[in-house]
Amino acid sequence: MPAHEKRDTRLILPVLLLGVVSYALIQSLIAPVLPVIQQDLGTTQSTVTWVLTANLLSASIFTPILGRLGDRAGKDKVLLVALIALAAGALISAVAPNIFVMLVGRALSGVGGGVLPLAFGIVRDELPRERVAPAVGLIAALLAIGAGLGIVLAGPIVDLLGYRALFWLPAIAVVIAAVTTYFRIPASQSRAPGRFSWTASALLALWLVSLLVALTEAASWGWGSLRVLGLLAAAVVLLVTWVVLETRSASPLIDMRMMRAPAVWTTNLVALLFGIGMYGLMGFLPAFMQTSPSLGYGFGASVTRAGLLMLPLSVTMFVSGLAAPRLTHRYGAKGVLVGGTVFAVGSFALLTLAHGQQWQILVSMALLGIGFGAAFATMSNVIVAAVPAHQTGAANGMNANIRSIGGAMGAAVMASIVGAHVLPSGLPTERGYSIGFAVLGLACVGAALAALLVPRNHQHVAALPLRDEESYAEAAVVGVPGLAR
């Protein structure tokens, strides 16, 4: 778009929302139908789980990298690249004749994880200041809702069109988002200085791959196996090397000074612990509900019915996400975050102690949606308020990444607990699920304690000029009261 043209912002948010929700659906629709994919492609149960893991690994690597590239090269251009990769990966998965091609497509789709930090950055660059907080909250809420909505929609789509439609339908939406991005998203005028570090990017990829492979495979390899311990040790060494390199770099991929800001590190800790609870639950609750009641628990639900029992999660998550900006304005981000964690803890307490009736699942999911929706929307606004504009993409990308890492940890812990409590037939026992739900609840208790550390309101920061980068950076580093609003 030529610089002299008036910048039309009317379609920016709808285009970004379409890209974000499409990415979330591509990521989550597959979880309930892994057995169907396993049978169709003639693979093993351990191999088919990589349909989820490959996507998670790829997203963990590319989300912060694309966020930083967008800050440097132009968010509009990099967003288009992310959407094209997301669509291409979905299309490859849709026609995959074997598990190898399926995994290639899923890994390519993970590149689309960059949509989230780029969307946050574009919102902050292009929308009027008074619209930034509500828009960020809506984007964050839709990302979380998409994760829950995928489980709800998977059953009906498979029943009507087959499981490959789970790739075709979101791919169509992504193509539409890519076309409208090309024509309607203005060229970025805010650029970050400095060189892009490929060494830092490689180290980031290596420690994330080592960590997530170890966490994902620990249930089958054994937590004490040499492979798991070796990968965890490698992850620690690579992480320390990466942090040292980033700390000394004049143009870091992730600004470690920014990551040490009180509002940033506390919010990232909440994201990590909430990720453990959310993704650990979504990976195992459908299987719990699909278990035959003859085993003493479960409802014998179909994929469709199990999804409907989780529908309150998506509905209340959406509503609370929309309400989060107003609640934050009134009570402050700290109050909203703490309140959200309280709802989540209550949900897991109910799920742990009472899960024999379907209404108990419905109530638990409604409470969890309220907590997750409000917290996720608020965390994004904390990050936006706490960092300078040119670091918005990288900071939110890392926050999303930390949530994904937490999700991998939650899934791994649940797999180990459930797998350690099995019947002679090899099927999980009710006790295994109950202990697992309790552990996820404890993660949410930890999130509540972390939320208490988030700085209160940020009136002083709000009074700073939006583009006053040095003032924002200094405020974030010293922990000016009010960063968290």
From TrEMBL:
One Pfam family this sequence matches: MFS_1
GO CC annotations on file: plasma membrane
Chief subcellular location: membrane
Keywords: Membrane, Transmembrane, Transmembrane helix
Compartments reported by the entry: Cell membrane
Membrane topology qualifier: Multi-pass membrane protein
Ranges where the Major facilitator superfamily (MFS) profile domain occurs: 12-458
Annotated GO MF terms: transmembrane transporter activity
InterPro entries: MFS, MFS_dom, MFS_trans_sf, Tet-R_TetA/multi-R_MdtG-like
Transmembrane segments: 12-35, 47-66, 78-97, 103-123, 135-157, 163-183, 195-215, 221-245, 265-286, 306-324, 336-355, 361-384, 405-423, 435-454
Entries under PANTHER family matching the protein: BLL0718 PROTEIN, MAJOR FACILITATOR SUPERFAMILY MULTIDRUG TRANSPORTER MFSC
Protein name: Major Facilitator Superfamily protein
Provenance organism: Asanoa ishikariensis
